[in-house]
Amino acid sequence: MRALMQERQLLISSLIEHAATYHPDTEIVSRTCEGTTVRSSYREIRSRAKQLAKALVAMGVKPGDRVGTLAWNTHRHMELYFAVSGIGAVLHTVNPRLFPEQIEYIVNHAEDKVLFFDITFAGLIGKLRPHLGTVERFVAMTDSAHLPAEAGDCAAYEDVIGAQDDQLDWPQFPETEASSLCYTSGTTGNPKGVLYSHRSTLLHSFTACSTDGLKLSSRDSVLLAVPLFHVNAWGIPYASAMCGAKVVLPGPWLDGKSLFELAAEENCNFSLGVPTVWLGFLKYIEETPGLDLSRIKLERVVIGGSAAPRAIIEKLHHLLGAETLHAWGMSETSPLGTIGNLLPKHRDLPIEEQITIRAKQGRAIYGVELRITNEDGQPLAHDGETSGDLKVRGPWVTAGYFKGEGGEVLDEDGWFATGDVACIDREGYIRLTDRSKDVIKSGGEWISSIDLENAAVAHPAVQEAAVIGLPHPKWQERPLLLVIRKPQAEPEKQEILDFLSDRVAKWWLPDDVVFVDELPHTATGKLQKNKLREQFRDFTFNT
Ligand code: AMP
Question: Which of 205, 235, 524, 537 lies 20 to 30 angstroms, CA to CA, from 85?
Fold first, then answer.
């Protein structure tokens, strides 16, 4: 029997309508590429998003067309989030940290019709534009006074929207239509596009706003330290509009000092970012004498994208009194998959034990089903020890890649193989032990490179660590530890190994330690182990 409920569609336009109606004066504060700070509000964001929507229609953008952005976290970028999806077009946020050839590939693959860019990328646009055949219009996200010459012929964002009024009723269409497109950074092969829907985006937003999710609400002032080009800034622009949270956008400045000042000035109590951002933030605090830490009011910090080292979680707690919500996810999961909230029974545990739980990657949230399987696809026990291939399914998990790249990605029961290796404990907390291609297979057993790296960075003289498996005549593979030392620190190889031997099983101990000056990272800050394996291909263990 068909139900008798209204079938109003879950559309992104309804988010900004709600925010502008019920939280009209809530601020959106933005540092801009021109070096100013713009204070706007949900009322203004809606108004300008509607002007922009009309401008896009006037440019010939039709439902389903892709509109690209190459931009930092600013109010203009947030307006694009609502304007583009609001008219049924697809917002394609391009990661500007990728190599120019990758950007060219992605824009061409997505067939972007219009490309909006920040003035900091004018030179890049100037070089790339002869190769971007589908792009009909280039728009610099600035006013006419700051139009950059290097980009070639382009319009100024403020002129584009200034030519329109804000009288617009958002079109209604099925919630299953595409709303945005993000390409996975992928350490190998060409990037692949994940195409989100209005429905998946709104369901994901409800989770961010739920108490056992990210607890986002109208009392929050959000320091958005995760870029708008990184999996839709983890869905926060949408979720913030849903609940009326204040959003603070750092522009291109994600260094420790800039984030510290912004968080202090705007009373931010909630923030999100990858571990590298928090390392920079904490480094600034530790290396700047006389800072008044009471100016920082952070209560919750979401860390994801790579494993959050325990030391970061500890420092956020001990220095700032902030709780870390360690989250796991990927472009293919919108990205929220698991969130590291504590259960009621953990509340009275000593703080160090609580931190141990927070250092895991969290538990599945409603809407996300998780399981681990062996090489034959058989489900494995959730006992906290057995590790296997992590599979996921749910209404905000991808069913395939844009234009069918990569072929069929779901198994016959609808599970998506994440490429991560994890164990799941009895309470449902997952602990990522590796990417499946990075796992070290030693004597028929698996060694977790992530566990070894986490143990190594706990050493006070270690700034960053990477562990890779290299071929070994007897054991098949053995771990090699690569370490960047902290400035002025001179630890010996043996000292590091002794330190590790108290923390990991003896047969896990790396067969060698090499001190390096830098480690290669992807555009989203992940270690590029394939590069390291290549670099150390001819390394031989002495053992
Ligand atoms: P991306 O799609 O570029 O965001 O990358 C997703 C991948 O990042 C996942 O498959 C994981 O390998 C990794 N990742 C995300 N969150 C975490 C986390 N909290 N701990 C460890 N790895 C993570």
Answer: 524
